[in-house]
Structures are given as C-alpha cells and as structure tokens.
Amino acid sequence: xxxVDALEQEKALGKAGxxxxxxxxxxxxxxxxxxILRAKSPAx
Length: 44
Description:
The model has no long low-confidence stretch (mean pLDDT 76). The chain has one domain (2-40). The chain is flat and about 25 Å long. Helices cover 57% and strands 0% of the residues. The chain starts with a helix and ends with a helix. By secondary structure, the protein is mainly alpha-helical.
C-alpha cells in the first residue's frame, strides 16, 4: 500500500508522474501482488 499512498500523495501535491518517471529508470521493481489486489478492491 505504500506505493499507492505515495502515488496518491504525489497527485495531491500536483506532482503526478514524478514517482512513475523515477521508476522507469530503475532496472527492477518488485511489487507485492497481494497489496496490488487489495488496492484495486472496491472494499479496500
């Protein structure tokens, strides 16, 4: 959930896209699948 929170905070600050741009310069990003599913779930 930390990534989702960071993206939402970035958006609220009017700097959307900065973190995503930074991640494109990294060779490997490991995303925990369970947390992604939870973030997409309507129930939270």
